[in-house]
Automatic annotation (TrEMBL):
Source taxonomy: Eukaryota, Fungi, Dikarya, Ascomycota, Pezizomycotina
Transferase found in the keyword field: no
Residues spanning the signal sequence: none
GO biological process: fatty acid beta-oxidation
Name this protein carries in UniProt: ClpP/crotonase-like domain-containing protein
Organism: Ampelomyces quisqualis
Main localization (coarse): other
């Protein structure tokens, strides 16, 4: 099992509740788990580390406390940072500085999507703004019925710029719904998120959700890590590409990754009615 002492990061709890399963908990409940800069930098560091950790095969992402997965960006902290820099820059140079800042922020959230291991998010309570950016970078999203989603950025005077406007259309496949919630900033709940395809399962409460999502993570972690990594990679690659492109990439990928003992071990386990044990990746 992975060593939790290697995952000491401010504002996050990283634990290992089951073999090959990591639990990453956003831990700033007194501020509704709202993000300030050090948090998204730490988030990126955590997921880059997990990506190459042979002791981890699946990840569960949650928020601490009962009130929020995350309320999004800590607006008060942001108002004292890059967005209000008093440096005497001309408009072009200020724009370039902001562009770099936004790209850095985007890259930190994309680190979740680029993690080799499947990431399962359990959303509860308030899930505003950055919560959707982050959840949409995850592979599987579950929620409670009382989760309150909102693409909140329009209410603070900007277009969402960390991933929601790019990933949400792919997740739900409904441009009208995307524009409705992004332009109005209106709240919607777990049942509507399920109906729209934003999440794949809803629960009555956070505790029930934790049992469900942890059970699924354990199930995934019991599969061949070669097969799991390949499946995530190919599905992500195929998004936005033609079927032919996806098939060609799959052929090239499996030309290498089929050369694994895991295929034989998985087949034998089915024939012999026993659980397969796979080597670390």
């Amino acid at each position: 099992m992975a060593n939790a002492t290697n995952y000491k990061f401010d504002f996050f709890n990283v634990t290992f509740p089951s073999e090959y399963v990591a639990h990453v908990e956003i831990n700033r409940p007194e501020k509704l788990n709202a993000f300030k800069e050090i948090m998204w930098l730490n988030l990126s560091a955590i997921f880059k580390k997990i990506s190459h950790d042979p002791e981890v095969r699946a990840v569960v992402l949650t928020g601490a406390g009962d009130r929020a997965f995350t309320a999004g960006l800590d607006v008060q902290a942001a108002s004292q940072g890059t967005l209000t820099s008093a440096a005497p820059l001309d408009p072009a140079r200020k724009a370039n500085s902001l562009r770099r800042h936004i790209l850095d922020f985007q890259a930190c959230i994309t680190a979740v999507e680029q993690c080799e291991k499947p990431v399962l998010a359990l959303l509860h309570g308030i899930a505003y703004g950055l919560a959707l950016d982050l959840a949409l970078a995850c592979d599987i999203r579950h929620a409670t019925r009382t989760t309150r989603f909102s693409v909140k950025e329009v209410d603070i005077g900007l277009a969402a710029d960390i991933g929601t406007l790019s990933r949400l259309p792919h997740a739900v496949g409904n441009a009208s719904f995307v524009k409705e919630v992004a332009l109005s900033g209106r709240e919607f709940g777990g049942d509507e998120a399920l109906a729209r395809g934003l999440v794949s399962r809803v629960y009555g409460c956070k505790e029930e959700g934790w049992e469900g999502v942890l059970g699924l993570a354990r199930e995934i972690a019991g599969k061949s890590p070669v097969a799991v990594v390949g499946t995530k990679e190919i599905v992500n690659f195929s998004r936005g590409r033609t079927v032919e492109d996806g098939l060609r990439y799959t052929a090239v990928w499996n030309a290498g990754y089929l050369q694994t003992r895991d295929v034989k071990d998985a087949m034998l386990s089915g024939l012999e009615k026993k659980k397969a044990v796979f080597s670390k990746l």
